[in-house]
Amino acid sequence: MNDEKRQAAAAKLIDEQRKTHEAIGAFIFAFSQLEFTIRARLARVLGLKEGTADIVTGPYDFAMLCTVSREAMLAKKRVSKKRKKAIEAFFKDCLGFNSRNRLVVAHALWTIGGASHVSRSNLKRKMHFSDLDELRAETKKAQALMNRMFFERI
């Protein structure tokens, strides 16, 4: 292989790595915004002051944050059946999204070919997001979940 071909192959590899890094970063950014929005909502439901909110909500992983937030919201007096259904559906969707996507993105072995992840439920390795457009679509879903908190007044 001559120098020109080696340089072209190296440039292609660098570009593929950059695209992978950008897609992962965009997903993590969007997910962190969703998580922060849920934390802020929980703090408001519990009436926590700014200095106390991080102390109380900081130790929760995402799954526990969703569970505690859901239960705190449902425990409030005068929660209508419609609102109760919206709260339950929202957090069910968040938990499913987390297990299908965030756990894979955060804990997989990433290559430019995708994310190689071992499921904790069956201990089998599977490739995910070999097409970065799949990850980009999931990033949009994280953004849509966050927007639901506002539009559905969760």
Please write the string of helix (H) and strand (E) elements.
HHHHEEEH
Alpha carbon gyration radius: 19 Å
How does the major sheet shape up?
A: 3 strands, antiparallel
Structural class: mainly alpha
Shape summary? elongated
Tell me the β content. 5-15%
Number of strands: 3
Proportion of helical residues: over 70%
The mean pLDDT is: 95
Unreliable runs, pLDDT <50, ≥5 residues? none
Main β-sheet, spatial strand arrangement: 1-2-3
User: Count of DSSP helices?
Assistant: 5
The end-to-end distance, rounded to whole angstroms, is 59 Å
Explain how this protein is built.
- The chain is mainly alpha-helical and 154 residues long.
- It contains five helices and three strands, in the order ααααβββα.
- It has helices at residues 3-46, 50-57, 62-75, 81-107, 132-151; strands spanning 109-111, 114-118, 125-128.
- A three-stranded antiparallel β-sheet has the order 1-2-3, covered by helices on one side.
- A hairpin with a 6-residue loop joins strand 2 and strand 3.
- Helix 1 crosses helix 2 (50-57) and helix 1 (3-46) packs parallel to helix 5 (132-151).
- The longest helix has 44 residues, at 3-46.
- The chain is elongated, with a radius of gyration of 19 Å.
- The relative contact order is 0.14.
- The model has no long low-confidence stretch (mean pLDDT 95).
List the keywords:
154 residues, mainly alpha, three-stranded antiparallel beta sheet, 73% helix
